[in-house]
Specification:
With 327 residues, this protein is an alpha/beta fold. It is 41% helix and 19% strand. Bound molecules: NADPH dihydro-nicotinamide-adenine-dinucleotide phosphate (NDP). NADPH dihydro-nicotinamide-adenine-dinucleotide phosphate binds next to helix 1.
Length: 327
């Protein structure tokens, strides 16, 4: 067994938290030979519920769970952590404008960014799941001036996984037959699920499905899958979001498969003409714990328009929260 690593999870008593913690503790994220110490953050009123979750975690007697810290103090939550999954966020209430939502989340993610800056390991890996995830990640990053900005990422992996599953179903293939799917941009309805480079058992996906299905079925189904699940289940997706968070962190820590890539929301370096600095979904490969944007993909006019639209939305979101950035 390796030395344990510390993994912070915020919103730990929430729905996604409940689906996430047991899998991290069981070794699904970092492997069966990597013990973890969980650092669980909640708001004060949720601490009793969190205590129940901690009892259940203990009752599982996981071989890879070497300790649990449960707290409502950000400074304790992020102390010496190697990984931070920021799940807790302010949900959109009835009649709430996007601007109000961004503002409410600024109050959560600015102090968390500062606490990560002050207390986490210098090579901490941060994944923001709480919505609006890309811009929440930017707020946290901009309040952590001592850390490499590339340590802050946002989750577009659920959209990526949904795209794989839709395409596998349509073509009668297995999920593992699908490679090179990309989710460009924001984890919002402007996201662009792109299958121009995707292969199914090595064959170009767009030679197996027609353009009408791609434009009128596939793209909207992936974009609106979250709403469809709320309608069907009466609650938002939680287990699939947790599973995607595990996939994101596992690939970032342990690498991506040869001949394939994954989608991660990462700080744009201007690649593919995207505004530098915004947290944008890109195709990436990971080796030795470091992600790189897949370069040189051909972008046609159809893709360009969609990639620019989601970039525009992210620039607007950034403009709405710039006042929350540390000077
Ligand atoms: P969930 O656990 O269901 O969701 C948490 C966040 O994840 C939401 O912002 C949600 O966005 C987002 N999310 C991202 N992808 C998905 C997806 N595919 N499906 C569903 N959600 C997704 O929320 P709960 O209300 O059950 O739990 C939140 C917990 O966070 C509460 O226990 C609360 O006390 C806590 N919290 C903790 C904070 C802290 O630790 N400082 C701060 C704020 C809250 P969306 O709203 O768009 O569904």
């Amino acid at each position: 067994m390796k030395a344990p690593v510390r993994v912070a999870v915020t919103g730990a008593a929430g729905q996604i938290g409940y689906a996430l913690l047991f899998r991290i503790a069981a070794g699904d994220m970092l492997g069966p030979d990597q013990p973890v110490i969980l650092h669980l953050l909640e708001i004060t009123p949720a601490l009793p519920a969190l205590n129940g979750v901690v009892m259940e975690l203990n009752d599982c007697a996981f071989p890879t769970l070497h300790g649990v810290v449960a707290t409502d103090d950000v400074n304790v939550a992020f102390k010496d952590v190697d990984f931070a999954l920021l799940v807790g966020a302010r949900p959109r209430g009835p009649g709430m404008e996007r601007k109000d939502l961004l503002e409410a989340n600024g109050a959560i993610f600015a102090p968390q960014g500062k606490a990560i800056n002050d207390h986490a390991k210098r090579d901490v890996r941060v994944l923001v799941v709480g919505n609006p995830a890309n811009t929440n990640a930017l707020i946290a990053q901009q309040n952590a001036p001592d850390l490499d900005p590339r340590r802050f990422t946002a989750m577009v992996r659920l959209d990526h996984n949904r795209a794989i599953s839709q395409l596998a179903e349509k073509t009668g293939a297995l999920n593992t037959d699908i490679a090179k799917v990309t989710i460009w941009g924001n984890h919002s309805s402007t996201q662009y699920p792109d299958i121009h480079q995707t292969t199914v058992k090595g064959k170009p996906a767009l030679s197996l499905v027609d353009q009408t299905w791609y434009e009128n079925d596939f793209i909207p189904v992936v974009q609106q899958r979250g709403a469809a699940i709320i309608k069907a289940r009466g609650a938002s997706s939680a287990a699939s979001a947790a599973s995607a968070a595990i996939d994101h962190m596992r690939n970032w820590a342990l690498g991506t498969a040869a001949g394939d890539w994954v989608s991660m929301g990462i700080p744009s370096d201007g690649s593919y003409g995207i505004e530098p600095g915004v947290i944008y979904g890109y195709p990436v490969t990971v080796s030795n714990g470091s992600y790189e944007i897949v370069q040189g993909l051909e972008i046609n006019a159809f893709s360009r328009a969609r990639m620019d639209a989601t970039d525009r939305e992210l620039r607007e979101e950034r403009a709405a929260v710039e006042h929350l950035f540390a000077k």
